[in-house]
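Hello,

Following up on my earlier ticket. Below are the two sequence lines again, exactly as submitted.
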Amino acid sequence: DAMVIQNPRYQVTQFGKPVTLSCSQTLNHNVMYWYQQKSSQAPKLLFHYYDKDFNNEADTPDNFQSRRPNTSFCFLDIRSPGLGDAAMYLCATSTNSGLEKLFFGSGTQLSVL
Amino acid sequence: RKEVEQDPGPFNVPEGATVAFNCTYSNSASQSFFWYRQDCRKEPKLLMSVYSSGNEDGRFTAQLNRASQYISLLIRDSKLSDSATYLCVVRVSGGYNKLIFGAGTRLAVHP
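Thanks for your patience. The regenerated structure is below:
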């Protein structure tokens, strides 16, 4: 049974058209993350929530926003997607107890036309 | 300099071979270390944690050298199913469980 669910699996949007990616979890983990991964590159942390406490990485563009309305759901909003935003977007969860691993969703592959 | 550096490969090895991957990290305050495996177009999955004394899980052995800020993964008796990208992952200090990923080393095991 999937524990971290991302929808959709593939998303196509147009240049400049806002898009929202969603993530839900059944693990009741208090930490949720969004990573961006481009081809042959490392997953790059965009931001994370510790409960409702939002933590933005210093180099995350303003074009990327996030919402976490409750423990189970987290959204990634890309306000004006550019061609360079085409990537795999990975949602992950964890508890915050030191050596806990990340539980990843299967990712959303975003294409920008 | 990248926080976590890996040789991208690919490492092309025959079945049954032993192969080793290395990883270096720049933040001396890094606290925890992991190897993740990622199949093509799939999400990363935890392969194993890396402990200071070194640890083994079946055919996989991980080593950590804190003085040199170096992590290794050894795979013995390679299987076709081991073909994947292996990501070195480091947890940095600062309160939250923030993990920094390397770009990965690609392994291709052939018959």
